[in-house]
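Quick check before the chapter quiz. The format below is the same one you will see on the exam, so make sure you can read both the input and the output lines.
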Amino acid sequence: MYKICLSLIFTMLVITGVSGMNASLAATVEDRTSQSAIKVELTELQKNELANLHKGILEKKEQLISKYVEYGVITETKGKRIITRFEERYKKLEQNGFLPKCDKQKEYRKHEE
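Here is the expected output.
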């Protein structure tokens, strides 16, 4: 009798937890869709400020990779490849007006919409 009561309590807890997760997942999907509908336009001052921040981050990342190459943690060719990817990412951000592309995940999550 004790085992039956214990299993019923456990089952009820699991059902309660799963239903709570479904509600929270639905709320996050709604938040994501409502946020993606908002079109943001940055001013030139904002773009310049973001550009300066990204350039500073890019320089720090390049310094970090250079140190890894210097210490022999990664090869020089791999270091150059990594730095090239960083620069390509910066160029894409620059082309997009320093607005990150967050809609990429929608392609993978079509079943949630």
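If your answer matched, good. The mean pLDDT is 80.
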